[in-house]
Design goal:
31 helices; alpha/beta; 58% helix; binds ligand C2E; single chain; 864 residues; eight-stranded mixed β-barrel; binds calcium ion
Length: 864
């Protein structure tokens, strides 16, 4: 195995030093360029060496002359004469180089040329490669050219042709040759670096001035040489400094010329730049002016320049259009002419402040009057405007039509203050109207206002049974009818749900309002055609008049509402006027609420029992439990009064529990009194609040369990209205009760909206015909027909029919003849306290035990 020598992988220290040197000084030299450089440098060195050797034997005077010529040439190298308006310069040193050549031959000239080139390249280049190669090139070129001259002069002399003229011509020719050689040698370096070939045409371009200068230098040198030949060295001594001075002057002159030229050029440049800047400025100004002008002219918002005294100086198209002027120029007119009279002051005040310099701008909204008379709301922005060059500052007003925005605002306002369904003012808006009415009446006592409060008697039912769409449709039609019935100035509002209110102002409001109420009752009683069916309804109207003395709108509405409740309580479909007595009623109601709360705890409530009889055989079948309140001060209070109070005060649950517990307990007691009483039943009234209560079924169950009743002996009475209104939510509870065996009776049957389809599917055991039918029942009457129809309906549906409110024997007979199952009413028995029921039952039991056939109604003796 041959071990690898270190030299194979690493350059020897010598080579690496060369390489480093090469990289440092000749990084841009390729192989050829490098070879060329070295060749020229070596050749130059060699030429110098040969020249020095040639001169070695020369006498001292010759040496002095050569040294002086060389020194002058080198010195001149420091002061090149630059040729004006060209990049070229020539060193005047050439004259002396040529002089040395003519006087001492090529070897001496070679030294001078190398010296001059060293100085020139030192001055013009910072690269050592050119500082070294330039003198070498000059030496080679001069040695060659000089040797040729020497040879040529020798030949001329040999043929006797040497004269001043031929010398001059040959000197000039050799100078050109020297120059050409020098140029070729120098040009070769960059060409080799770029790997290009030398082209004669490119070289020729470099001739011209410098060539001529060289030729000129050579001719001067020849002249000096000839003078020297004739007159000796003295002339040269004198001429040389003169020439040096001349050249120095030339140098300085051209330098001065050059710097003057530079100054002139920079002046021209500066002034051109300034002119360009000024032109640009003007152009920019013009553009900005144009931009402003076009922004002003084409702006979509109205713009106007107004002088300080208010006259329009300029107005754009948008403003003219806004003011309805068309093409007419508003110039010179006062801007305030266009502002609507009411808003003139609005504009004048801030304008004065801008004029006074207090503020620079402001924005306001006002109305302008168009040429056609129409008033347009506008937003005005005004600011100080000073135009450069303008005689006086003015104001710039931007005027924008804001009617669209105003309309949108009005729309929003409308939404906020109007009911979206009917488009009528809403409660908030009505309040505002009321506030204003109260103020007006306060300031003008002869004025009066009245408020009608309308509530539809069966709206909830319509909504629940026929759906909300029908309900909405119904309300829209109702609203229209109300609106059509009032005077134009009256305000109709929808307060919510089916509540409407009307505000009327009049000098005799009571008269107007009662008339209006009657008219409305009439109009609203007529059927409404909604969703393919006819809906008949009625309204209850409460009225209050400002003479009651109001300060707050809510008091007005409260009193109208109270009056409306009075109308409802009085039998619906009527109106009631609020009076101070009603106030008492209301406060009484508030008082009763508190009393009832305490009454429940204090045991002031009791239960009365009204017997029910089977009409076919007169047998006692059961009782209806009716709540009683014996108020310590007010005496007996009707359940028609206190049940609604209990419902509103949330007292229904304890009240019902009390009645349930009592009645179930009593029934058990009474069922035990005799063998014939085991099947007696108890009918108990249930309110809407009860079935809405989540614990409803457990409460019923508990009452049954506690009394140890059989569920089928308890029958719950639910009015037809409540049943239908809450059908969906109540149904699960009702089905569960039916499953338990508890009976269900539809109370006040005939007053509600039950559909036959519902009746057959609902868990109902009996229909309790409303007493209004029974009471109006005469042979052949409409009511008699209804009763007969209900009885038949009950039979066909398999449900028993109970008639309540039987007051006369004739009614009793009729009902029995019709086949009505059960009867209840004063003619049979009034509601009895429990003790009297016990007495009654004991009497019946005694009668039965004595063997009497129980043929007809055993009525409580005390009441007949
Ligand atoms: P209602 O359920 O229709 O009860 C029947 C009402 O008719 C009772 O009035 C009764 O005294 C009365 N009445 C009975 N026979 C006749 C008659 O021949 N002629 C006339 N004109 N009236 C007769 P009352 O006791 O004043 O009860 C009024 C209403 O109060 C009841 O009407 C019922 O809806 C409600 N109510 C009574 N007690 C309770 C209760 O404990 N709970 C609930 N939720 N409501 C009750
Ligand atoms: Ca009842
Ligand atoms: Ca009833």
């Amino acid at each position: 195995m041959t071990p690898t020598t270190p030299a194979a992988t690493e350059p020897t220290p010598g080579v690496s030093a060369w390489l480093r040197l090469h990289r440092a000084f000749m990084p841009d030299y390729n192989g050829k360029a490098t070879a060329y450089w070295w060749s020229v440098v070596l050749l130059g060195g060699f030429t110098l060496f040969v020249s020095l050797k040639t001169l070695a034997a020369a006498p001292a005077t010759a040496w002095w002359q050569i040294a002086a010529g060389t020194a002058i040439a080198m010195l001149a190298g420091f002061f090149p004469v630059r040729i004006p308006r060209s990049k070229n310069s020539f060193a005047a040193g050439e004259v002396f180089i040529f002089l040395v050549l003519l006087m001492h031959g090529p070897a001496a000239a070679t030294l001078a040329a190398a010296g001059e080139a060293a100085v020139s390249s030192w001055r013009t280049s910072r690269r050592w490669t050119s500082r070294i190669v330039s003198p070498a090139m000059a030496a080679v070129a001069m040695f060659a050219a000089g040797s040729l001259l020497q040879a040529a002069l020798g030949v001329l002399q040999a043929h006797g042709l040497l004269s001043d003229a031929t010398l001059m011509v040959v000197a000039m020719g050799v100078a050109l040759l020297y120059f050409a050689l020098n140029t070729v040698l120098a040009t070769a370096v960059p060409l080799l670096k770029r790997n290009e070939r030398l082209r004669v045409s490119a070289l020729a371009g470099n001739f011209g001035w410098i060539g001529i200068a060289f030729a000129g230098s050579a001719s001067v040198a020849a002249l000096l040489f000839m003078t020297y030949q004739r007159s000796g060295i003295g002339v040269l001594m004198a001429a040389a400094p003169l020439l040096a001075m001349l050249l120095a002057t030339l140098h300085l002159f051209f330098r001065q010329q050059e710097s003057d030229e530079l100054v002139r050029l920079s002046r021209i440049e500066t002034s051109e730049r300034e002119a360009e800047q000024a032109a640009r400025h003007v152009r920019e100004l013009e553009a900005s002016e144009r931009r402003f002008h076009s922004a002003f002219t084409h702006a979509s918002i109205g713009m106007t320049l107004v002088s300080f005294d208010g006259r329009i100086v300029q107005a754009n198209l948008a403003l003219r259009t806004l003011l309805g002027l068309g093409v007419a120029e508003p110039t010179q007119r006062d801007f305030s002419e266009f502002v609507s009279a009411e808003d003139a002051a609005l504009l004048e005040q801030p304008l004065a402040r801008v004029r006074a310099g207090e503020i620079e701008s402001f924005a306001i909204e006002l109305r302008v009057r168009q040429a056609g008379g129409a008033v347009v709301p506008v937003a005005v922005h005004c600011s100080f405007f000073s135009e450069p060059g303008a005689a006086a500052p003015c104001l710039i007003l931007q005027v924008q039509d804001v009617s669209a925005r105003r309309r949108a605002e009005a729309g929003l306002q409308h939404l906020a203050f109007h009911d979206s369904l009917t488009g009528l003012p809403n409660r908030r808006r009505f309040h505002q109207h009321l506030v204003r009415a109260i103020e007006r009446v306060g300031s003008t006592p002869r004025l009066q206002f009245g408020v009608l409060f309308l509530d539809f008697d069966r709206f909830k039912l319509i909504n629940d049974s026929m759906g909300h769409t029908v309900g909405d449709d119904f309300l829209v039609r109702v609203a229209r009818r109300i609106q059509d019935s009032v005077r134009p100035g009256d305000i109709v509002a929808r307060l919510g749900g089916d509540e409407f209110a009307i505000l009327a102002e009049d000098s005799d409001c009571e008269h107007y309002c009662t008339h209006l109420a009657e008219r409305l009752l009439d109009v609203l009683r007529k059927p409404f055609a909604v969703a393919g069916t006819e809906i008949t309804t009625s309204a209850s109207i409460g009225i209050t008049i400002s003479t009651a003395g109001y300060a707050r709108p809510e008091d007005v509405l409260r009193d109208a509402d109270t009056a409306m409740y009075k109308a409802k309580a009085a039998g619906k479909a009527r109106y009631a006027l609020f009076d101070v007595g009603l106030h008492a009623e209301v406060s009484q109601r508030v008082r009763l609420e508190g009393d009832l709360r305490r009454a429940l705890a204090a045991g002031q409530l009791s239960v009365a029992y009204q017997p029910l009889y089977r009409l076919a055989d007169g047998q006692l079948s059961g009782f209806e439990a009716l709540a009683r309140w014996n108020h310590p001060e007010l005496g007996v209070i009707s359940p028609l009064t206190f049940i609604p109070i209990a419902e509103e005060a949330g007292l229904m649950v304890p009240l019902s529990d009390f009645v349930l517990g009592r009645a179930c307990g009593r029934l058990k007691e009474w069922q035990r009194l005799g063998a014939g009483f085991a099947e007696l039943t108890m009918q108990i009234n249930i309110s809407g609040n009860d079935i809405a209560h989540s614990g409803f079924v457990p409460r019923i169950t508990r009452a049954i369990v506690e009394a140890r009743l059989q569920p089928q002996h308890l029958i719950l009475e639910l009015t037809e209205n409540i049943l239908m209104a809450r059908l969906e939510s109540a149904l699960p509870a009702l089905i569960e009760l039916q499953r338990l065996g508890v009976g269900l009776s539809v109370d006040d049957f005939g007053t509600g909206y039950s559909s036959l389809a519902h009746l057959s599917s609902l868990p109902i055991d009996s229909l309790k015909l409303d007493r209004s039918f029974v009471q109006k029942m005469q042979v052949g009457s409409k009511e008699a027909a209804v009763v007969r129809a209900v009885v038949q309906l009950g039979k066909s549906l398999g449900k028993s029919v109970i008639a309540e409110g039987i007051e006369t024997p004739s009614q009793l007979d009729q009902l029995r003849d019709m086949g009505c199952d059960v009867g209840q009413g004063y003619v049979l028995s009034r509601p009895l306290p429990a003790e009297l029921v016990t007495t009654l039952l004991e009497r019946i039991a005694a009668k039965t035990s004595r063997g009497f056939q129980n043929t007809a109604f055993d009525r409580p003796v005390l009441f007949h």
